[in-house]
Amino acid sequence: MKKTFVLKKLLFSFLILTLLSECGIYRKTDSRKVPYNVNDRVQKNLEEGRRIKFGKGSRGGGSFEFASSNEMWRAAIEILDFIPLNNADYGGGIIITDWYSEGSDDTDSLKIMIRFLSNEVRADGLKITVYKKNCKLNSGVQNCSTQVDKSEIGQELKLAILKKAAIYKSETQKKDKEEFMKNRKPINRDRDGQD
Q1: At what angle do helices 71-79 and 153-183 cross, to 10 degrees?
Q2: Read out DSSP for the chain?
Q3: How far, CA to CA in Å, does 40 sit from each of 35, 46, 47, 77, 127?
Q4: Which of 61, 121, 154, 193 could covalently link to 130 via disulfide, CB atoms 3.0 to 4.6 Å apart?
Q5: pTM value?
Q6: Which letter, b or e, does each residue of 76-111 get, where b requires 16 or more Cβ atoms within 10 Å of its Cβ?
Q7: How many Cα neighbours within 13 Å face the side chain of 66?
Q8: Can you tell me the mean pLDDT for 113-135?
Q9: Would you say 16 and 26 are in contact if contact means Cβ atoms under 8 Å apart?
């Protein structure tokens, strides 16, 4: 009985190893052919087409943008740099500030929430909600009420963010164009004008 158990265990292990090697999960590599530097390994893997694939028949590693490459996000962070941030989640597309009041009087304060609906620089790409908190001291007890602020602050913030994002976008496009012009290869034409 003990022999059959050991034999089954050995057979199962052999089957698992065979499946792993056949599926391509485990492959022997020659350490002389694998670059030591991490960046070189990443570049080699990308050139060989090894990357994370999502979905059926997906070609490539997906489209990931980082906060530093998103003009709307960068503009919003820069515009709100005078207010402490409570939550800034690029993946979730939301920025929430802490309560902010200009003076030493803490009776009125504002909180700003920006939701990014698109990565594109356009007016309907973000929604800004401004909350206003009004606190009053009544017989030693502070009573606060919070409501959505209907003033023009939200619209002014949106306009400022869109303007700044448009500037960032034009700078990025200019830089990309310069990079393209620098890296493009000249076309060699012979006497007949053919390529």
Answers
A1: 130
A2: -HHHHHHHHHHHHHHHHHHHHHHTSS----TTTS-SSHHHHHHHHHHTT-----STT--SS-----GGG-HHHHHHHHHTTTS-EEEEETTTTEEEEPPB-SSS-TTEEEEEEEEE--SSSSGGGEEEEEEEEEEEEETTEEEEEEEE--STHHHHHHHHHHHHHHHHHHHHHHHHHHHHHHHPPPPP--TTS--
A3: 6, 10, 11, 33, 41
A4: 154
A5: 0.57
A6: bbebbeeeeeeebeeeebebbbebeeeeeeeeebbb
A7: 1
A8: 90
A9: no
**What are the pLDDT digits (tens) for 36-50?**
666 676 666 666 655
Q: Which two tokens stand for residue 79?
A: 């515009």
What is the C-alpha separation between 91 and 191, in angstroms, rounded? 55
Dmax over CA atoms of the chain, in Å, equals 95
- Note the pLDDT tens digit of each residue in 131-150: 999 988 888 788 888 999 98
Q: What is the pLDDT of residues 15-70, one digit of tens each?
A: 777 766 655 555 566 666 666 666 676 666 666 655 544 444 444 444 445 556 78
Using the structure block, give the residue that is written with the tokens 């007949």: 192
Burial of 132 (0-12, 13-18, 19+ CB in 10 A): middle
**Number of CB atoms found within 10 A of residue 127's CB:** 13
What are the tokens at 188? 């060699």
Angle at 121 between CA 181 and CA 167, to 5 degrees: 60
Q: Where are the domains of the chain?
A: 67-175
